[in-house]
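Supplementary Methods. Inverse-folding protocol.

Structures were first reduced to a discrete structure-token string of length 203. This string, shown here, constituted the complete conditioning input.
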């Protein structure tokens, strides 16, 4: 199972990650760069969640965040297309935008993902905010469920008939760090679902 992780890169030598199969960074100018090392920590924590649940998966780091957890829409689109071009089976998108001006280009990107037979996992909504591209048809949408155990997900049906995944917002535990002091939130609900889907037998 090939899993693309679009995020802040991955610190591949971290003990919770145990290496990645490859990756790329999308530079601030939109070009591809070889250094996908995570210098923020978010992408590494996301990768650790996926590795925990799918230890045999091939993880690929696709870095779009460099100094902060923000990027240009063009960088996100290039990252999604990199995942399509490099034949990922799953794409983890623990990020999103509220900007409706980006809906058309993100809808087109999701169409390319679906046409390639790839599942894009992303946040549907959080705290009443609708996220893109996670709320678009064709995406595997995720919402937070703080009561859901970390090693499973639940499903519900949206009004339009689509299935939404419900998952814990807690990441992989860190020894001697309480869950309330660790990273948490919708990003990790998305990663928990991606990891569990990556562990399923391929059809």
């Amino acid at each position: 199972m090939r899993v693309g992780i679009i995020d802040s890169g991955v610190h591949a030598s971290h003990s919770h990650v145990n290496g990645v199969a490859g990756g790329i960074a999308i530079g601030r100018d939109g070009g591809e760069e070889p250094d996908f090392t995570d210098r923020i920590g978010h992408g590494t924590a996301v990768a650790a969640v996926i590795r925990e649940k799918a230890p045999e998966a091939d993880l690929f780091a696709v870095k779009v965040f460099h100094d902060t957890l923000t990027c240009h829409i063009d960088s996100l689109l290039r990252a999604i297309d990199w995942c399509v071009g490099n034949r990922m089976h799953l794409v983890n998108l623990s990020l999103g935008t509220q900007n409706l001006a980006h809906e058309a280009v993100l809808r087109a990107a999701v169409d390319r993902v679906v046409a390639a037979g790839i599942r894009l996992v992303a946040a549907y909504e959080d705290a009443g905010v609708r996220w893109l591209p996670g709320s678009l048809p064709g995406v595997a949408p995720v919402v937070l469920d703080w009561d859901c155990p970390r090693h499973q997900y639940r499903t519900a049906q949206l009004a339009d008939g689509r299935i939404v995944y419900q998952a814990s917002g807690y990441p992989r535990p860190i020894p001697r760090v309480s869950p309330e002091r660790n990273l948490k939130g919708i990003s990790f609900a998305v990663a928990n679902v991606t990891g569990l889907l990556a562990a399923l037998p391929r059809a």
